[in-house]
Design a protein that fits this description.
Layout (H helix, E strand, L loop, with lengths): L4 H24 L11 H7 L6 H9 L5 H12 L10 H22 L7 H7 L1 H34 L3 H47 L7 H4 L18 H14 L4 H9 L3 H30 L22 H9 L2 H17 L2 H20 L5 H25 L3 H25 L5 H17 L17 E6 L6 E6 L4 H25 L24 H4 L28 H5 L8 H5 L1
Helix pairs in contact: 1-8, 1-14, 2-8, 3-8, 3-12, 4-12, 5-10, 5-12, 6-7, 7-8, 7-14, 7-15, 7-16, 7-17, 8-12, 8-14, 8-15, 8-16, 11-12, 12-13, 13-14, 15-16, 17-18, 17-19, 18-19
């Protein structure tokens, strides 16, 4: 098949539009925060903390609404045996934004943190911060790789160009404007991204619905015409698994740097909450055209279309139902417009994950753990290098790994099972310490990995109640695969076990050391007896400006911080009488 010139032109136009907006945003805000004394590195990470309602609402919505979201929703609605009942992402992520706005946005923003890992390092020390960075980084990198992988497949459907070439070009464009403009470029391109998705899909939906090969979707919702009804149903035996996956989306959608990046860039704590609620509404609205396209796919007599007599699910192409519907059920000019818009949007949604990963590395690993004296210019260069490295890593995984979706599923599970309970502990539970944190980390990891991961062909070594052996037949090769399906809600149980072990082991360690049962010399993590040592990120490391008034109740102004000033305020560290060379002036005030 020849390259579709019209499709290529549409994609080039949309790509150039997003590239232009990314560069324009960087240029427009190049001096942002300079007058107020904000560091350049912090401006790249949280945009000078002056993102307003309009841009903020769009960028917060784009946290989850990207290529994976719209393609995945359409695929679930289309798949027989799943249907709308199993398309959990729209409601799950919308509720995660509501819960995040109600409980997490205000404490995180009002304390003036710069990344999601800041409170962990403040309370548990730099080593634990480094451990928690691992699942957070894996989640961001695999998410970007999954997005780029989906994009390559989509583009190959539209314009029949080499998948590898499309992935490389898309990744390079996203890396380039993120390098140039940081959060401002990410935020402004998100506005264009959502407009592209909204326009591209809504323009296509009426044409797809009115195609003669498509039956009435109102009928196919409840009656079997070409396949099982697309509303789907939840079997009684699957209810616990359904709830487990729903909790994973709703609660596991909170502890991501891509979300807190937006929260922490809001101009106030109240704004951060409002943006979360706006984005929850945006998530639901943006899912509607995807649901309709999935329903159209389930209501189509494919033998009457240019696609051919074999339906997509029989060719193992269910995951590409959205581009297939747009290409084969819409007129060419509409399909190219829709697919061009969607492709550009997908490309744009990889940028925030790459920026998130590099922000956490530059600040929490490089600066706070290894080089506390690093200059702002040095941090900026570390961020630029890691944006390029993490972007290239995601691109390489999209090109070389066939199991990128499996890796993404597993890493998102680890974010839910490990980071979410730790975030609750660090923000809302008094008395937890590094010993509890390590115990929670290990328990959560073992219980989750023990359940196996069919996508990665990772067999379980813990067989939870209600497990079954399932058979999967690959439609094209007729190859039969057997795997273990865990119907027990083991992900949520692992998360709860991680939380409870954090609390229990923290109090146990505190009791053992403070009662004298264990000698202080065994407090090797320095988190109970010697809690104000160099290991814990206290005032000595985190506050380097002599003029900052150290009070946890001090309001965070819209633009704050010289170097690390005011990022954290550790009340316990301040209440004790010890002084250090860096903080003696503060204590004399």
């Amino acid at each position: 098949m020849a390259i579709h010139v019209e499709g290529l032109v549409a994609i080039v136009i949309f790509y150039l539009l997003i590239l232009f907006v990314g560069i324009w945003a960087a240029w427009k805000n190049k001096n942002s925060g300079v007058e107020e004394g904000t560091d350049r590195s912090e401006t790249i990470m949280v945009g000078g903390r002056d993102i307003g309602l309009f841009v903020g609402g769009f960028t917060m919505t784009a946290t989850w609404v990207g290529g994976g979201y719209i393609n995945g929703t359409a695929e679930n609605v289309y798949l027989p045996g799943y249907g709308l009942a199993w398309a959990q992402a729209p409601f799950g992520y919308a509720l995660s934004l509501v819960v995040g706005g109600l409980f997490f946005a205000k404490p995180m923003r009002s304390r003036g943190y710069v990344t999601m890992l800041d409170p962990f390092q403040q309370l548990y020390g730099k080593r634990m911060g480094g451990l928690l960075f691992i699942p957070a980084l894996m989640g961001e990198i695999f998410w970007s790789a999954a997005i780029l992988s989906a994009l390559g497949a989509t583009l190959s459907v539209i314009v029949d160009i080499n998948i590898n070439m499309s992935v490389i070009i898309s990744a390079l464009i996203a890396i380039f404007y993120t390098l140039v403009g940081g959060l401002y470029s990410v935020a402004y391109t998100d506005v264009v991204q959502l407009f592209c998705i909204f326009l591209g899909l809504w323009v296509s939906v009426p044409f797809a619905l009115s195609n003669p090969a498509v039956s009435d979707i109102g009928v196919t919702a409840v009656k079997e015409v070409y396949q099982a009804p697309w509303l789907g149903n939840i079997e009684t035996s699957d209810i616990w698994m359904w709830l487990d996956n729903f909790c994973l989306l709703m609660l596991g959608g909170i502890p991501w740097q891509v979300y807190f990046q937006r929260v922490l860039s809001a101009s106030s704590a109240t704004y951060a909450q409002v943006l979360s609620f706006l984005a929850a509404f945006g998530c639901l609205v943006m899912a509607v055209p995807s649901v309709l396209i999935g329903a159209v796919g389930a209501s189509t007599a494919w033998n009457q279309t240019s696609y051919g007599p074999i339906p997509p699910m029989m060719k193992d192409e269910s995951d590409m139902i959205l581009p297939i519907v747009l290409q084969h059920l819409c007129p060419p000019y509409i399909s190219f417009f829709g697919l061009g818009a969607v492709s550009a949007a997908v490309m744009s949604s990889a940028d925030s994950s790459i920026l998130s990963a590099s922000s956490m590395f530059a600040r929490n690993i490089y600066q706070l753990a290894f080089r506390q004296s690093a200059s702002d210019r040095e941090i900026v260069w570390v961020m630029r290098i890691t944006i390029f490295v993490f972007g290239a890593l995601a691109m390489a995984m999209a090109l070389l790994t066939g199991t990128v979706y499996g890796l993404w599923y597993l890493s998102s599970d680890l974010v839910y099972v490990i980071i979410f309970p730790q975030l609750i502990s660090v923000l809302f539970v008094k008395g937890t310490n590094t010993y509890g944190s390590v115990a929670g980390y290990i328990f959560g990891l073992l219980l989750r990995i023990g359940g196996g991961e069919p996508y990665l062909k990772l067999p379980p070594f813990i067989y939870y109640p209600g497990w079954t052996q399932e058979k999967k037949v690959h439609q094209l090769t007729k190859k039969v695969e057997y795997f273990i399906l865990q119907k027990f809600p083991f992900k949520t149980v692992s998360m709860l076990a991680s939380f409870l072990s954090n609390v229990a082991f923290s109090h146990l360690a505190k009791y053992l050391f403070e009662s004298g049962t264990l000698s202080p010399k065994y407090d090797f993590l320095d988190s109970v007896i010697s809690k104000h040592s160099q290991e814990i990120m206290d005032k000595t490391t985190l506050v380097s400006n002599d003029n900052i008034i150290l009070s946890e109740l001090a309001p965070v102004k819209p633009r704050l911080s010289t170097t690390l000033a005011g990022t954290f305020t550790n009340k316990e560290a301040l209440s004790d009488g010890e002084s250090s060379p860096d903080s003696s002036n503060n204590e004399n005030e």
